[in-house]
Design a protein that fits this description.
Strand 18 and strand 19 form a beta hairpin. 16% of the residues lie in helices and 34% in strands. With 292 residues, the protein is an alpha+beta fold.
C-alpha cells in the first residue's frame, strides 16, 4: 500500500494512494485512526483493515483535489546518517566511518512532498540530499539485524535539506539539519511488502532538471537493517520514527564550483518503487517570526 496523509476541504487525515485516486480511510474504514502514527501503532490488524478498504471503489477522491502532506506529520524521531555512501565520503574528503554517524533532525522539520522549502534568512548555504528513509512500524529495542525487517512499516523519500555553514561550524549537525521545512518526505509511506529489497533501489536527484545525484541503495555502507540494529541498541524505536539512510555523492557543496540552492530552484528526488518528491526553494517568509 501507498499510505498518505492528505488535506481535503480543511480536514487532514490518512488514506491510500491508488494511481491518481485516494481511498479516504476515514470514510472507507471509519473505525481506523485518522493519523498515521496512530495507524502504525495499531499494528497489522489496522493495516489489514486499510488493505480491505482498497476493494471499495467508493468513496474515492481525485488526487488532484487533495493536498499531500508529509506522510507522517510529526515523526516521533527523525534520525539521519552521515557519510553512508562511499562516493559521498570521497567528495567530502573524510575517512569512511567505522560506525554509523548518527544525527537527528527535529520533528518540526518534516515537510510535505511538493511544498516549497525555505532558504533561511540566517544563511545562504542551502543544500539538498536525496535519501531513502525507513519508517518504523513497531515499538522495539535491541533488534538483531536478521530480524530488523520485522519492525519496518515501510519506506519513503527524504530530502535531508542542509544548511552547510550551520552544519559544519560545530561538531554536532543538529542545528544545520533541523531548520523548519528542511525534511520533505513522501509522497507516500510505501509498505514494506511492496519493497522486497530496499537495498537495490535506484536513487536520482535533479536541480532545475539537471542531474545531480545518481546511485543505488546497494551502495549504502551501513544498510537499513544494520542501522536499525545499531540505533535500537541505545534507545527504543517507536512507530512513525523515520530513519533517513544517508545521501550519495553529488551534493551541491561538493560541486566545482559549489552549486548551493537559491530561491527559485526546484529539487526533484526519485527512488524506485517510492515515486518522487519535488520542492521549490523560496525565501523564508516573514510569517515565520513567532513570539508567544
Amino acid at each position: 500500500m501507498k499510505l498518505i496523509t492528505f488535506t481535503h476541504r480543511g480536514s487532514t487525515r490518512i488514506g491510500v494512494l491508488v494511481g491518481d485516486e485516494v481511498v479516504d480511510l476515514q470514510a472507507a474504514a471509519p473505525a481506523l485512526p485518522t493519523e498515521m502514527v496512530a495507524l502504525l501503532a495499531a499494528g497489522e490488524p489496522a493495516l489489514e483493515t486499510a488493505r480491505a478498504a482498497l476493494a471499495a471503489t467508493d468513496p474515492r477522491l481525485s488526487l488532484a483535489d487533495v493536498h499531500l502532506e508529509s506522510p507522517i506529520l510529526r515523526p516521533p524521531k527523525i534520525l539521519a546518517v552521515g557519510l553512508n555512501y562511499a562516493d559521498h565520503v570521497a567528495e567530502s574528503g573524510l575517512d569512511t566511518p567505522k560506525h554509523p554517524m548518527i544525527f537527528n533532525k527535529q520533528s518540526t522539520s518534516a515537510h510535505p512532498p511538493y511544498d516549497p522549502f525555505h532558504l533561511p534568512r540566517a544563511s545562504a548555504a542551502l543544500d539538498y540530499e536525496g535519501e531513502l528513509a525507513v519508517v518504523i512500524g513497531k515499538r522495539c529495542r535491541h533488534v538483531p539485524r536478521e530480524r530488523a525487517h520485522e519492525v519496518v512499516a515501510g519506506y519513503t523519500i527524504c530530502n535531508d535539506v542542509s544548511v552547510r555553514d550551520w552544519q559544519l561550524r560545530v561538531p554536532t549537525f543538529t542545528m544545520g539539519k533541523s531548520f523548519d521545512t528542511h525534511c520533505p518526505l513522501g509522497p507516500a509511506l510505501v509498505t514494506a511488502d511492496e519493497i522486497p529489497d530496499p537495498h537495490s533501489l535506484e536513487l536520482h536527484t535533479w536541480v532545475n532538471g539537471e542531474p545531480r545525484q545518481s546511485s543505488n541503495t546497494k551502495h549504502l555502507i551501513f544498510d537499513c537493517f544494520t542501522l536499525i540494529e545499531h540505533l535500537s541498541t541505545a534507545f527504543t524505536l517507536e512507530p512513525g520514527d523515520v530513519i533517513s539512510t544517508g545521501t550519495p555523492g553529488g551534493v551541491g557543496i561538493a560541486q566545482k564550483p559549489p552549486a548551493l540552492l537559491k530561491a527559485g530552484d526546484v529539487v526533484k528526488i526519485a527512488i524506485d518503487g517510492l515515486g518522487e518528491i519535488e520542492n521549490s526553494v523560496i525565501d523564508e517568509p516573514a510569517s515565520t517570526v513567532q513570539i508567544g
